[in-house]
Design a protein that fits this description.
mainly alpha, 71% helix, 0% strand
């Protein structure tokens, strides 16, 4: 571990107490700030420096994701913890497949690590937000579902990897939203956190992921 990364993680540990305090507050508080780790300002000292910066961002978001998951799991029963871990496994599979697909056009280029790890970090930030029950969707569920289906269909033509990715993402979205809706009375989610609200929120995330995917095509 580099000295720079160690210093970065030490600063994160100082902030982690504040983050866990936020986790114990109602979801409405999260409208004030997006959870996760802000993307660092990467000094362009050549492609390797940009790659290293993206890797560090991914490593720190992974650290905060671990803290968030542990904080949520601490208040769950053993059965609920098992469900949470199953959801996490599906999400991890989605994240890797998405970021591999997103960065594939640059696979043989020097910028591949930057694109791949920036994707990994952003999707991890999204998972942190979802674990915290953060965010009110901008679109009604029916609208977000229609837009997402249209965008997904544009990426599916003759692409078996995208078909698999779509199936895994829907499995993750449905399992996550069913879980948090059942758990809506807890301290982590507001009382009006409905299944459709959750699905629309995640649909908007998926649309953002697809927008990045198409931008590199």
């Amino acid at each position: 571990m580099t000295q720079q990364l160690t210093q970065y993680l030490n600063r994160c540990k100082i902030l982690s107490g504040a983050m866990l305090t936020v986790l114990a507050t109602p979801a409405a508080v999260f409208a004030e700030a997006v959870p996760g780790v802000a993307k660092p300002v990467c000094l362009d000292q050549g492609q390797q420096s940009l790659n290293d910066c993206a890797i560090r961002w991914h490593q720190v978001t992974a650290y905060f994701h671990q803290l968030t998951e542990e904080a949520v799991a601490a208040s769950l029963s053993e059965e609920q913890q098992l469900r949470l871990e199953q959801i996490e496994q599906t999400w991890r599979r989605y994240r890797v497949l998405l970021c591999e697909a997103t960065s594939e056009p640059l696979e043989d280029g020097a910028a591949y690590p930057m694109v791949f790890y920036n994707c990994m970090a952003q999707v991890t930030n999204d998972r942190i937000a979802n674990l915290q029950g953060w965010g009110i969707p901008d679109m009604a569920y029916e609208v977000s579902e229609a837009e997402m289906i249209e965008a997904e269909n544009s990426s599916l033509v003759g692409d078996l990897k995208q078909i698999e990715l779509q199936m895994i993402w829907r499995r993750y979205r449905n399992a996550h939203c069913e879980f948090v809706t059942e758990y809506a009375a807890s301290q982590f989610f507001s009382d009006d956190f409905s299944l459709e609200t959750c699905r629309s929120r995640l649909n908007e995330e998926r649309l953002a992921h697809l927008e990045t995917y198409f931008a590199l095509r």
